[in-house]
Write a structure and sequence with these properties.
488 residues, mainly alpha, 20 helices, globular
Length: 488
């Protein structure tokens, strides 16, 4: 591997892992935080909701910033800000300060997350991109699986503040590393630079203007995603159906206004050539359906194992250890599978495994032991990692390099909105069967989530069929007088 790509890969992998670890370790710290700060349940919920709304609202705009100003630079700002916000939360005197700093942490996370994919797209040529994405996915799976165990140990020994201090050293280190790493150029990655100026003419000295970032489109997109995520979270709360429906209706209105604005904007936030790409849209649909099905199913299964079968959090985590192992071990196998069978067949197999896992999980009753739960979790892990690596590779490959940050932002948006949609769906359907809803075989939540997982199948069938097509980026428009680029 080129030595200049090593720090880029390190920043991408560690940054994505820190965000994944932060989300899972916080779950076990919330009860202790609530007791220590004398907070109510609604305030504690906003610790997660405020972060999620901030991240989902700003991901695409942050990706656009990376496309304009350099992914490493934006990544460094996000990583250093994330470290500062984490340290601030660990020292916060009250619940109000924790919520405010979590929102700030979400803003910094939004800067950080799209850049973890955008910098890979600019540093690695398309034919070598599947391997670093697989490494990134494996580390995310490992971090997410280790989160509850690490969080439980830290909270038991040092209190809830130690959970937030955990992310300070790695984010500070990768932020400083990104500042000292030179941004890769297209000629160094093997990707033709279609926008390079003529060698006979001096390069134009231009500075990206604010209008080039489409601030109004960014605001409308943030309002749309923020209202949607807030509506889904509120709808999942007891008595919050009215507020959630009102917020979702507002998201629809804001989305219509956004669509009209984007059609008229000279430089829209969401590039038309990106949204017109069938493989990109199909990849995003795969990620949305798969993440909704997985996280919704895990939500139901956690209540089943802890409230019905009376397992402690560690016993519950051990039941789902096969999911984590398949995430870690399966990710490196996905690139050769894509090269051998192509993205379409690889993703279709992953969607079938995921849907089968959710369907089998929906048939468990109160007597279910460790083996059937383990088999279901293994199917969930194998299916989800296959879909995540394959769909992410297609989205990043097919996006023009100039829009790599926006593509990364859309990928991360799907991965943030999907879980919110899945958990909200599960919560609403659990309420329909109050006496037996937590038992999968008696409830309606997991059968519905199996149908959601099945929606990934038609989206997977819309992905490129051959390995060659799956690894080629979308062509960019040629300027006047430029010859077409002929690939061997």
């Amino acid at each position: 591997m080129n030595r200049r790509r090593v720090p880029v890969l390190a920043c991408s992998v560690v940054g994505a892992a820190v965000v994944a670890l932060d989300g899972t370790v916080l779950t076990v710290a919330q009860p202790a935080l609530q007791r220590d700060l004398y907070a109510d349940v609604g305030q504690v919920q906003w610790i997660s909701t405020g972060y999620l709304v901030a991240v989902a609202s700003l991901l695409v705009f942050a990706g656009r910033l990376g496309d304009r100003h350099g992914h490493l630079r934006v990544f460094a700002v996000g990583a250093l800000g994330f470290a500062a916000a984490s340290a601030g939360i660990a020292l916060a005197p009250g619940i109000g300060a924790v919520i405010a700093l979590r929102v700030l942490q979400g803003v910094c996370g939004a800067l950080l997350q799209p850049a973890t994919l955008g910098m890979l797209r600019t540093a690695f040529p398309p034919e070598r991109l599947a391997a670093p994405i697989a490494v990134r996915t494996a580390v995310i799976g490992l971090a997410a699986a280790a989160g509850p165990l690490v969080g439980g140990a830290l909270v038991s020994a040092y209190g809830w503040r130690s959970v937030f201090l955990l992310s300070v050293p790695p984010t500070l280190a990768i932020g400083l590393l990104a500042l000292t790493t030179r941004e890769p150029r297209p000629r160094e990655t093997g990707i033709p630079d279609r926008t390079a100026p003529s060698r006979t003419a001096p390069p134009p000295r231009t500075t990206p203007s604010l209008s080039a970032l489409d601030p109004l489109g960014a605001l409308l997109f943030a309002v749309t995603l923020g209202l949607l995520v807030h509506g889904l979270v509120e709808a999942a709360r007891p008595g919050g159906a009215g507020t959630g429906a009102f917020a979702c209706a507002g998201a629809v209105v804001a989305g219509i206004v956004l669509a009209r604005h984007e059609r008229r904007a000279a430089r829209p936030l969401l590039p038309p050539e990106l949204l017109r790409s069938g493989p990109v849209v199909a990849g995003l649909a795969v990620l949305l359906a798969a993440s909704a099905a997985l996280f919704g199913s895990l939500f139901v299964a956690t209540y089943f194992l802890q409230d019905v079968q009376r397992l402690d959090p560690l016993g519950c985590a051990l039941r789902f250890l096969p999911l984590a192992l398949l995430m870690v071990l399966g990710a490196p196998l996905c690139p050769p599978l894509q090269r051998r069978f192509g993205p379409r067949r690889t993703a279709t197999a992953g969607a079938a495994l995921l849907a089968l896992g959710v369907l089998l999980l929906s048939r468990l009753d109160t007597t279910a032991g460790a083996l059937p739960v383990g088999v279901c979790s293994a199917l969930l892990g194998a299916g989800f990692v296959t879909l995540m690596v394959t769909a992410t590779s297609v989205v990043v490959h097919r996006a023009p390099e100039a829009h790599a940050g926006v593509a990364g932002g859309l990928q991360q948006t799907a991965m943030n909105v999907g879980p919110a949609l899945g958990v909200a769906t599960a919560t609403l359907l659990l309420a329909l069967v109050p006496d037996g809803g937590f038992v999968p075989a008696r409830g309606a939540a997991l059968p519905a989530l199996a149908a959601v997982a099945a929606l990934a199948l038609p989206a997977a069938l819309a992905l490129p069929g051959g390995a060659r097509r799956g690894t080629r980026p979308e062509p960019t428009s040629r300027g006047p007088g430029r010859e077409p680029c002929v690939r061997s």
